[in-house]
Specification:
The protein has 2 helices and 21 strands. It is mainly beta. Among the domains are: 119 residues, Immunoglobulin-like; 83 residues, Immunoglobulin-like, CATH 2.60.40.2500. The two termini are 72 Å apart. This is P-type conjugative transfer protein VirB9.
Length: 294
Amino acid sequence: MKKLIIVLALILSNSFSAEIPEKSTFDKRVRFAVFNPEEVFKIYAKDGYTTVLKLEDGEKVINAATGFSEGWDITNKNNFVFIKPQAYMSQVSVSENGETINKKSVIKPSYKWNTNLIITTDRREYLIDLRLAFNTVFFKINFVYPDTKIKETKEALIAKAKEEEQKYIKKELNKTTVPRNWEFFMNVNKDSEGIAPNFAYDDGVFTYLGFDTTKTIPSVFLFENEEESILNTHIEKDGKYDVLVIHKTAKMIILRSGKKVVGLLNEGYAKNPLEKTRYTTTDSVKREVIQNGK
């Protein structure tokens, strides 16, 4: 029976024990505590010293309350909480020679200073078993957060996956496709050689015009029914050439830059149509039209 009582006492004492922050490998006065909302953290602060708690970056303290406010100075700024034991003034009334006299005395920190501290923030609630230190003293306690680390790791992995996906899409969209038609003929107006492409072909979806570094990239127009209309384009890099990708295949295309004009006649237009219409330069990437933000 005696042994059973001792075992139960040990179990109960362990179940209600406060967590003491772990020592730093560099200095035992600097500590680390793994945050657990169901845990009480035992913190030692010494008279004449300030102990600081570092909470999570960006976390803001809403309130910090102790059970013995006269004996502890608790202040906070951003995600830091500063703790310092303090003496306080006590006033007592005594009777001397029939007169009541108010006497003041300074009460210095002692073993009776032990109390609790509750810190509430915009993210968490911290339960502190606040102890006056006579030997052991904590200068700084850094809280660490497993849930935050897991979340940050997950977010980093998701961001990395999205980044890799975007790189793949960009690579697929930026690469020139296999030519299906090289039957392009040019009519270069006088003094217009500077905007004449070095090569031209289409892949059944887009038209590709290659320019070396000596050339000027012109504006591109569709010539149809005796009228001109501007065409959408983008530029890709292919070796030493800047490739002007025209988002269409057409029978006649006109290139302009100032007074310079070049006409392109596509003799292979519609001779070798695709079995299936594509809307991008690659089968690996599909274009989806999103309307009304859906």
